[in-house]
Amino acid sequence: MSEPEFNSFIIVGLTSQGKKFRPSDWSDRLSGILSAFGATKKMHYSPYVSPGDYNGEKAVYVDGTLRDLEPAAYAFLLDFAQDNDLQVVNSVCPVR
Questions:
Q1: Alpha-carbon distance values, 21 to 18, 27, 63, 66 (Å)
Q2: What's the whole-number mean pLDDT along residues 61-72?
Q3: Does the pLDDT of residue 1 top 50, yes or no?
């Protein structure tokens, strides 16, 4: 995949045709790939990838810092969106 001109982006759970992406917990599952269990034995999402909502739709927020830290993970997320024909909102503020 070619390098995008942006860093931070949001993957929205709608296809380019406006159809909802399934399963309904896809954003939690995708964010969970980059999560870790801490000393409290609770799952903690990465500070660079987190599930959320965007205009009432399930979404995954990706901080562009991930591109520098883990380029393969960053590329995986972009490829996931492209492979599943999901909408991507780019040039957004980093996840905090």
A1: 9, 10, 22, 24
A2: 94
A3: no
Contact 59, 27 (CB under 8 A): yes
**What pLDDT is stored for residue 38 in this prediction?**
78
User: What residue spans define the domains of the chain?
Assistant: 9-90
How far is the C-alpha of 12 from the C-alpha of 70, rounded, in Å?
21
Contact predicate 93/41, CB 8 Å: no
Q: pLDDT by residue (tens digit) across 39-59?
A: 888 888 999 999 999 999 999
**Residue in the block written with tokens 């996931």:** 80
CA pair distance 68, 33, nearest whole angstrom: 18
Topology adopted by domain 9-90:
Alpha-Beta Plaits (3.30.70)
Is residue 5 exposed (0-12), middle (13-18) or buried (19+ Cβ within 10 Å)?
Answer: exposed
